[in-house]
Amino acid sequence: MIFFLGNIRRCTYVHCDVANEDQVKILVNTTVNSHGKLDIMFSNAGILSPSDQTVLDLDISQFDRLFAVNARGMALCVKHAARAMMEGRVRGSIVCTGSVAATHGTPRRVDYTMSKHAVLGLVRAASLQLAAHGIRVNCVSPNALATPLTCASFGLETEEMQMLYAHNARLRGMVLTPKHVADAVLFLVSGDSEFVTGHDLVVDGSYIGG
Questions:
Q1: Cα 176 vs. chain centroid, distance in angstroms?
Q2: Residue 3 lies in a domain
Q3: H or E stretch including 94?
Q4: What confidence score (pLDDT) does residue 5 get?
Q5: Are 28 and 80 in contact (CB under 8 A)?
Q6: Which residues form the domain of 26?
Q7: Which of 38, 42, 74 is nearest to 186 (CA)?
Q8: Inter-residue long-range contacts of 30-37, CB under 8 Å, 24+ positions, other chains counted
Q9: Number of separate helices (H) and strands (E) present in the chain
Q10: Mean pLDDT of the region 56-68
């Protein structure tokens, strides 16, 4: 997912496989070289397994690929963003995309659930370790969004997917949209949250887990 936050006057695209540390370094260095510093890192890359795995039928090759992106990739982005912020003496803000799966058990997709627990652990640890440098690290955890990725995974159309996800939220009369998530990210990277770190901001309509 790509979220456009505010009025962007200049945008640069850099192809990056977040599981590849050299490519993450290039991404961060390109940003610093182009703009002089790095103030914000929104680490949003994530994938789903190609199959609906439980622990009993866990395919380790699929597990490894998912963790390479969802956990390893997230850690690499936080690592190199934080280093750039420290070197530039920037009181920066790092936001990671989590999930309601980080705080609930799930009846399927055990690898995805584990990966999002890892993201939450990363945020909690990094926020403590980087606080002395004035760098904030937070997490936004939405309920599921009806994106092309999730729709393809379930074999459903967008409206069908939205109805399914809406059923799993207690907040009625609304459907979660990318803008709801983007607004939460914008809050966490803005001055309005300058004393907030190590926080998991759920955007889930009071998700009905389990």
A1: 16
A2: no
A3: strand 93-97
A4: 44
A5: yes
A6: 21-141+195-203
A7: 42
A8: 31/84, 32/84, 32/88, 36/88, 37/84, 37/85, 37/88, 37/90
A9: 7, 4
A10: 95
**CB of 93 closer than 8 Å to CB of 136:** yes
Is residue 9 included in any domain, yes or no? no
Asked if pLDDT for residue 50 goes beyond 50, the answer is yes
User: Is the pLDDT confidence value at 2 over 80?
Assistant: no
Tokens at 11, concatenated: 């945008």
Instruction: Name, in order, each residue with C-beta under 8 angstroms of 130's C-beta and a sequence gap of 6 or more.
Output: 82, 94, 136, 137
Element (H, E) at 183: helix 178-189
pLDDT, averaged across the chain: 89
- For the question of residue 112 being annotated catalytic, the response is yes
Tokens encoding 164: 């399914």
Amino acid at 161: M
184 is written with which tokens? 């939460």
Span of 33-37, 47-51, 173-177 with lowest mean pLDDT: 173-177
**pTM, whole model, 2 decimals?**
0.89
- Asked if 186 and 42 touch (Cβ cutoff 8 Å), the reply is no
- 40 - beta bridge partners? 93
Number of domains in the chain: 1
> Which of these is catalytic: 13, 112, 165, 207?
112
Chain centre distance of CA 141: 7
**Residue 65 dihedral angles phi and psi, to the nearest 5°:** -65, -45
Please check whether residue 132 lies inside any domain of the structure.
Answer: yes
Q: What CATH number is attached to the domain comprising 55?
A: 3.40.50.720
Judge whether 148 lies within some domain.
no
**Which residues make beta-bridge pairs with 26?**
none
